[in-house]
Amino acid sequence: MSLENALVSVKVVVLGDIGRSPRMQYHALSLASSGIKVNIISYTETKPLHDVEHNANIKITKLHRLDIGGPKLIQYFAKALWQSISLLLTLFITGKCDFVMCQNPPAIPTLPICKFYCLITKTKFIIDWHNYAYSIMALSLKSDHPLLKLSCKIEKWFGQGADNNLCVTYALKEDLLEKWSIIATVLYDKPPRIFYPLSQEEKHNWFVKLGKQYEEFTDLKAVNPKMKTAFTEVVDGNVTMRSDRPGLLFSSTSWTPDEDFSILMDALQGP
DSSP 3-state assignment of 3? Predict the structure, then answer.
């Protein structure tokens, strides 16, 4: 997919919290750095990246949630109706653009509403696939549930009708092609400049800070916890990594039903 210099603006639609959607923020920053005007339409429960908030080419239009009680089925339909109306009105109120890029999942009502707006305004429609909405729903619904079947059909129909499709891995690209004949372009996440290797001093200060909340990061035998942690120590004024430090594993995944972190934990236990 190529974006020409004549491109005026892109609407990035996230029917979720933009602060918890780093990939969509990276898209916005990448587009904005090329001089493209970006309007992020999303919920704003948590703050986005500093560079997103203070970029002159990026505007954030806030969506409002609907909180109601009652049976889950009623809640779901009321929520979907409210999201459909609020998203559609927001898309039209914020004016025309050249591209609409939406995150999937959620598929309902994001894909139908964005596609409808694009048809009316003759705007190019892009879907960025992070996962399948129907597969997430399948974690809590029976395989023959009408909502599950509807979600699957909607994802397939609108995915095939999009002008462009992006995805996060080659495995997802192949699955989209084999399952629904959807041709997608793999676009890996590239970390922004806020991510950089820590110096030895920064690592030490970070472990000291973590140790105040989690004792696993401290050296319980240390006389001065600011001078020695489970991973680092200060020797003659210089910070060094301890040779007897434990292993430390970082993972980008979350601990949710569709990303079961316990699988990794079990694998680390060995046979």
Answer: coil
User: Residue 1: pLDDT band by 50, 70, 90 thresholds?
Assistant: very low
* Euclidean distance between CA atoms 27 and 268, whole angstroms: 34
3-class secondary structure, 78: helix
DSSP 216-229: GGB-TT-SSTTTBB
Q: What's the CA gap between 66 and 51, in Å, rounded?
A: 29
pTM of this prediction? 0.78
Looking only at the bridges linking them, the beta strands covering 99-104 and 124-129 are: parallel
Helices 170-180 and 146-161 pack at an angle, to 10 degrees, of 100
* Residue 139 confidence class, pLDDT cut points 50, 70, 90: confident
CA distance 28 to 37: 9
Tell which phi-psi region holds residue 35, choosing left (phi > 0), alpha (psi between -120 and 50) or beta: left
